[in-house]
UniProtKB/TrEMBL annotation:
NADP(+) binds at residues 6-11. InterPro entries: 6-PGluconate_DH-like_C_sf, NAD(P)-bd_dom_sf, P5C_Rdtase_cat_N, P5CR-like_CS, P5CR_dimer, Pyrroline-COOH_reductase. HAMAP family: P5C_reductase. It catalyses: L-proline + NAD(+) = (S)-1-pyrroline-5-carboxylate + NADH + 2 H(+); L-proline + NADP(+) = (S)-1-pyrroline-5-carboxylate + NADPH + 2 H(+). Residues 160-261 form the Pyrroline-5-carboxylate reductase dimerisation domain. SUPFAM superfamilies: 6-phosphogluconate dehydrogenase C-terminal domain-like, NAD(P)-binding Rossmann-fold domains. The gene is proC. It comes from Paenibacillus glacialis. Pathway: Amino-acid biosynthesis; L-proline biosynthesis; L-proline from L-glutamate 5-semialdehyde: step 1/1. It is an enzyme of class 1 (oxidoreductase). This is Pyrroline-5-carboxylate reductase. GO terms for molecular function: pyrroline-5-carboxylate reductase activity. Residues 2-97 form the Pyrroline-5-carboxylate reductase catalytic N-terminal domain. Belongs to the pyrroline-5-carboxylate reductase family.
Length: 275
């Protein structure tokens, strides 16, 4: 099986590194292209045997599965470039949430799927969200699922819920890090503890918390109740946190969804609406 990858920016190169590192594919199976050439050279230095294409059409021509890892509005250029070169037996996988399956099916004759990966796949962890277009058969579902299983836990979702799901899986690591940065900042400022020391402890705590939630059989509420005994310090701090964070997550979800709708509307104009 040959795999193509268009766009070797942050997420494209992370997926490529992870697929190779976790043994999903060999560099020789990969054909990659990117608008600027420097990123391709860096990747070919990292992975001997990687095939660097001269352009996106060459990538498309060689592959069975094509991952397109560019930003939403960059899709229009790529679709224009590759539309006469894709084959009906090929599977194109977009990693961009606002680009809808119907945008791609409207404009390309191949099979279409969409995934929302996460930075956590760098360490073979986290959920990857998967959505399938109307032309996909069981065979391609299995293929994509098997490939993603090397680096993540693939979960099929409805496209209508892509935004809220990716708020957690894809944006989540940034939101959780933001929370930690603020907390660490306050700890350093108020107690003089060393940033390195407290960052190390905070990171271990995040890992342990994640493991308790994924493998320890606890829900977030059960975990919270286990630590915050009534009348204790944690319970008092949680009561304060509860007041401070009132409305924060509703605002967060409103923000991500408004930006998403804005992007989808722009793409509807460029790539055609559902009808
Ligand atoms: N970062 C995340 O955690 C994450 C998670 C899930 C999904 N995503 C999605 O992944 C997509 C890409 O994000 P990113 O962070 O990887 O962006 P990025 O770092 O800007 O990467 C985009 C890459 O696409 C290349 N490109 C642009 N137009 C091209 C064209 N016509 N032909 C070939 N290559 C082209 C760019 O090349 P240049 O070198 O010339 O700029 C760049 O390397 C976004 O839609 C994002 O929402 C990201």
């Amino acid at each position: 099986m040959k795999i193509g990858l268009i766009g070797t920016g942050s997420m494209g190169s992370l997926l490529l590194d992870a697929f190779i590192y976790f043994g999903a594919i060999q560099p020789q199976q990969l054909y990659i292209s990117n608008r600027s050439k420097e990123k391709l050279l860096l990747l070919s230095e990292r992975h001997e045997g990687l095939n660097i294409s001269q352009n996106n059409i060459e990538t498309v021509t060689h592959c069975d599965i094509l991952f397109v890892c560019v930003k939403p509005l960059q899709f229009t250029t790529i679709i224009e470039e590759i539309k006469d070169h894709v084959r009906s037996d090929q599977l194109l996988v977009s990693i961009t949430s606002p680009v809808q399956l119907h945008h791609l099916e409207n404009n390309l004759s191949c099979k279409i799927a969409k995934i929302i990966p996460s930075v956590t796949h760098k360490v073979g962890s986290g959920a990857s969200l998967v959505m399938y277009g109307s032309r996909i058969q069981e065979k391609e579902k299995q293929l994509l699922h098997d490939l993603l299983s090397f680096i993540s836990k693939p979960i099929e979702i409805k496209e209508t819920q892509a935004r809220i799901n990716s708020d957690f899986t894809s944006c989540g690591p940034a939101f959780m890090s933001f929370f930690l940065i603020k907390w660490i900042e306050a700890a350093v400022e108020m107690t003089g503890i060393s940033r390195e020391e407290i960052t190390c402890l905070a990171s271990e705590m995040m890992l342990g918390t994640g493991t308790l939630l994924t493998q320890g059989g606890l829900t977030p509420l059960q975990l919270q109740e286990l630590v915050a005994v009534p009348g204790g310090i944690t319970a008092q701090a949680l009561s304060q946190l509860n007041q401070s964070l009132d409305g924060v997550f509703h605002n967060l979800i409103t923000t991500t969804h408004n930006k998403y709708v804005e992007d989808v509307e722009k793409l509807n104009e460029l790539l055609g609406d559902i009808n």
